[in-house]
Design goal:
three-stranded antiparallel β-sheet; 458 residues; alpha+beta; single chain; globular
């Protein structure tokens, strides 16, 4: 059992471009323009930044941003939002470059999970846990939790086939195909079991959750990470948990996404049934009791997570979604779509509603719907713009600080270097490498000596 935890979020962004005039570029060409600025200084489309994060062009021409390692959940929210601005800055730069080449284009960066052709791209969550010989002690309960967690953490989606429109709680649910697997693209499991700890493998493993929706709402992002952290703490403490194993997790996650009441019966492997609300109430009760006993119940942000967890279940149970309509994303989006449809007399499948659904995920700081809602008070915030802007440049006080300081120094002194989550390496005649296995360590004498070596010009 570990007392502190490292968190991280990886987000694959969708990119869409509209062109005025006859000149057009393919999505792949737009993505390459997006990363020209990165390649110009990093000599690669896969780089680490001065804030400790990783930025790269993923399969399918999706920009991907992986936050630096965070121990504080509000730091994580800030660094996740910083990623939106960093990728949007690339889009602004690409627009300017395209204009110089004669293209009149607008590039949209979308933090969603499904494109117009039904392709899905993910938002992965990382949790550092202690090395255990039996991972199933965690996953047996965590998979049912994640299947029903979408009641608090879904981003919502208007799913239209012909003239039939269905509002789904989760964007990602229909694209999961297994409970557990070591693959990520071929089978898309709820939890990826590939053992890449990015830390001392004798002490830690990295729990890689790939079922979550990308979330624009700061409070929903907090709930994704905070509720999962609390459930992990329950399991790590050895707390006795009822047998909640699902008979068919893949079918269950799709069914829960289509049931906004949380009352649909879900078959368990034991032959019993349970509702999504019943599952979440059971786990909330265990988490609240554990937090109380561990002295976390009155400590922020655990206090806020527990309170919003309970209030969301109450909202779903009573049907009074106004209880969380500034904090839970699928509820916020549904309120917006329902209001717009009522105001303009639109059918549920109307293309204007589909466009509004897509516009929800635009990360642009002035054009995007989420920033507009935040400024009007219709979306609750946890970290202000100043903190997010600071996170674009400053790493959190973890191993990310060592990495960020090294990247900054190497860039400033024009040294040939390479970096990954664990290694800091000078590639020139010095041929020096520092291996950083402790993700919690923000101070390391070996790194200080390496930085001094760089700054001295040796």
């Amino acid at each position: 059992m570990i007392t502190a935890r490292i968190f991280g979020i990886e987000t694959e962004f969708g990119v869409n471009a509209t062109f005025r005039g006859t000149s057009r570029l393919s999505p792949e060409e737009v993505a390459r323009h997006l990363f020209r600025k990165v390649v110009a200084w990093g000599r690669s489309s896969n780089v680490f930044l001065v804030n400790g994060s990783r930025l790269y062009l993923d399969v399918g021409s999706h920009p991907e941003y992986a936050t630096a390692e965070c121990t504080d959940l509000l730091d994580l929210v800030a660094h996740d939002k910083a990623g939106e601005l960093i990728v949007q800055d690339l889009a602004d730069d690409a627009e300017a470059r395209l204009a110089e080449e004669g293209f009149d284009a607008t590039i949209y960066v979308l933090k969603n999970n499904v494109d117009s052709r039904g392709n899905s791209y993910g938002s992965h969550e990382n949790y550092l846990i202690a090395r255990t010989p039996r991972l199933e002690r965690v996953t047996d309960t965590l998979v049912p939790f994640l299947v029903t967690r979408q009641l608090m953490t879904g981003a919502g989606r208007l799913h239209v086939v012909g003239e039939r429109a269905t509002y789904l709680v989760s964007q990602r649910a229909d694209h999961m195909w297994e409970g557990l697997s070591s693959a990520t693209t071929r089978s898309r499991p709820i939890i990826n079991t590939r053992d890449e700890p990015h830390a001392d493998p004798g002490r830690y493993r990295r729990l890689h959750v790939i079922v979550g929706d990308s979330t624009m709402s700061q409070t929903t992002t907090l709930m994704r990470m905070g509720t999962t952290d609390l459930v992990l703490r329950v399991l790590e403490a050895g707390t006795r948990v009822p047998d909640l194993a699902l008979a068919n997790p893949v079918q269950a996650i799709r069914d829960v996404s289509r049931d906004q009441t949380g009352r649909l019966s879900i078959p368990l492997a034991s032959g019993r049934t349970i509702t999504a609300l019943g599952m979440q109430h059971t786990l909330l009760d265990l988490a609240a009791r554990h937090a109380q006993g561990a002295g976390l119940a009155d400590v922020s942000p655990h206090r806020e997570v527990l309170e919003l967890w309970e209030r969301t279940l109450q909202a779903v149970e009573t049907g009074d979604l106004s209880l969380v309509d500034t904090e839970i994303e699928w509820v916020m989006k549904k309120k917006l779509l329902d209001g717009y449809a009522a105001k303009h007399g639109l059918a549920p499948h109307d293309e204007r509603l589909q466009q509004l659904d897509l516009a929800w995920h635009d990360v642009h700081p002035t054009r995007g719907l989420m920033p507009i809602l935040q400024r009007s008070g219709a979306a609750r915030t946890l970290v202000d713009e100043q903190r997010v802007r600071r996170a674009m440049e400053e790493p959190p006080a973890t191993r990310a600080k060592l990495r960020g300081d090294f990247v900054r120094a190497a860039q400033e002194h024009r040294r040939d270097f390479s970096v990954d989550w664990v290694h800091l390496k000078l590639n020139d005649e010095a041929q020096r490498t520092v291996v950083c296995k402790d993700p919690f360590a923000s101070v390391d004498q070996r790194v200080e000596e390496l930085l001094a070596h760089i700054r001295a010009g040796r």
